[in-house]
Design brief:
Largest sheet: 4 strands, mixed
InterPro entries: ArsR-like_HTH, NT_sf, WH-like_DNA-bd_sf, WH_DNA-bd_sf
Organism: Microbispora triticiradicis
Oligomer: single chain
Strand order of the largest sheet: 6-5-4-7
Order of helices and strands: HEHHEEHHEHEHEHHE
Protein name: MarR family transcriptional regulator
Number of strands: 7
Length: 196
């Protein structure tokens, strides 16, 4: 059964394509192996490899070999790079921009995007999200979280709201805020996600 186009950017064939392009074009200074991209996006390595073949054929990426590794990076010289970067930043950008910013913040046990962006990513119809809501579970310093949010806003071109709760509060099933969050789509932010 074919996956429907993602509500975040229905021009794309799948959410996986959007997320892969976002990792490449929103971090154009980096090279990624197919294994690394699979871990970061939760997409199988065979799917990543197939999509990388398509991106290369379209001139969107360049690659080089280092032993058995296939290292891929965005082709920022293509005429579509700038508009593609802008479009990816406001659609799939949070999935690629927030994990590296949060991985250096100490005291984060878990982090999730919730609200309208997570709902669109999960396939729920609605208007494009105007902001990005992030929940951090743990003891991270609020100043560090706000600094990460401001950096993300600069790249994503929209407001990023970060809330922090304790691990105990996240485990409290009687808390109405926590219950509401857990009953709605959540997008886990981490450098690596399990492949599907």
């Amino acid at each position: 059964m074919r996956e429907p186009p993602p509500p975040l950017l229905p021009l794309l064939r799948s959410a996986a394509v959007g997320e892969l392009l976002a990792w490449l074009f929103l971090h154009p200074e980096n090279e990624y192996s197919t294994t690394d991209l699979a871990q970061r996006t939760g997409v199988s390595q065979s799917t990543v490899s197939r999509e990388m073949d398509r991106f290369a054929a379209a001139g969107l990426t360049s690659e080089r070999r280092h032993g058995n590794l296939r290292l891929i990076r965005a082709n920022t010289e293509t005429i579509v790079a700038r508009p593609l970067i802008d479009l990816l930043a406001v659609t799939f950008g949070p999935a690629a921009v927030l994990p590296p910013l949060l991985e250096d913040v100490t005291g984060i046990d878990e982090a999730y995007i919730y609200g309208s962006w997570a709902a669109r990513y999960a396939g729920r119809a609605g208007p494009p999200p105007r902001d990005v809501d992030v929940l951090v579970i743990g003891t991270a310093d609020l100043d560090d979280l706000y600094e990460a949010a401001r950096t993300a806003e600069h790249v994503l071109g929209r407001e990023v709201n970060i809330s922090r709760i304790s691990t105990d509060a996240w485990a409290d099933h009687n808390d109405p805020f926590v219950a509401a969050l857990k009953d709605n789509p959540l997008f886990q932010l981490s450098a690596e996600r399990s492949t599907s």
